[in-house]
Design a protein that fits this description.
heterodimer; A: mainly beta; B: mainly beta; four-stranded antiparallel β-sheet; 1 helix; 10 strands; 47% strand
Chain lengths: 119, 110
């Protein structure tokens, strides 16, 4: 069974940076497309961005609110996905979920890591 | 911008059948498969229905999905108290090169 474990969340000031990690196990990580989805407190789900597998070019795409500030990367040797978040804003406060993807759907979800942006 | 629209709330009594709708005005999203996620209180979302009407292993057959051109539905039959959760529809948006989520429906079992 696939398992995704996020870490790295915490409290950061507006304008600051944070890097989230997601350790994957139970599936062939190097072949998987991966994404981040976030959920602001009491709100719905919002797709953040996606990274394809290396064999598919390791291409990344991002949602408009985070484009230019967030960067998704992966280290297949460590079965780990990353989300580098820069120039953080208060509206980035959310639970951040690491997920695996197929072409048509978001598949497995981690338990999430909470990011709070506040002065 | 493409939008997936869900009713904010739904309710039913134990044993009843409940349906939750998900509609879009976008022909782009409308051509793609709709998926459904269940989020129990305080937990991460879980895939409930994929490719419009397919259930992952372990999901009871009380849950079913259907889709027409610009609308999809999740049906829950034999409602149980443990079905009380938030339910989200989602679909790939090719213009966004990403995924759209509906606003979520809070299901209450009375």
């Amino acid at each position: 069974e696939a398992r995704l474990v996020e870490s790295g969340g915490g409290l950061v000031k507006p304008g600051g940076s944070l890097r989230l990690s997601c350790a994957a196990s139970g599936f062939t990580f190097k072949n998987a497309w991966m994404s981040w989805v976030r959920q602001a407190p009491g709100k719905g789900l919002e797709w953040v961005g996606r990274i394809k597998s290396k064999t598919d070019g390791e291409t990344t795409d991002y949602a408009a609110p985070v484009k230019g500030r967030f960067t998704i990367s992966r280290d297949d040797s460590k079965n780990t996905l990353y989300l580098q978040m820069n120039s953080l804003k208060t509206e980035d406060t959310a639970m951040y979920y690491c997920t695996s993807l197929t072409w048509n759907y978001v598949h497995f979800w981690g338990q999430g890591t909470l990011v709070t942006v506040s002065s | 911008q493409s939008v997936l629209t869900q009713p904010p709330s739904a309710s039913g009594t134990p044993g009843q059948r409940v349906t939750i709708s998900c509609s879009t005005s976008s022909s782009n999203v409308g051509t793609n498969a709709v998926n459904w996620y269940q989020q129990l209180p305080g937990t991460a979302p879980k895939l409930l229905i994929y490719n419009n009407d397919q259930r992952p292993s372990g999901v009871p057959d009380r849950f079913s999905g259907s889709k027409s051109a610009t609308s999809a539905s999740l049906a829950i039959s034999g409602l149980q108290s443990e079905d009380e959760a938030d339910y989200y529809c989602a679909a790939r948006d090719d213009s966004l090169i990403g995924w759209l989520f509906g606003g979520g429906t809070k299901l209450t079992v009375l």
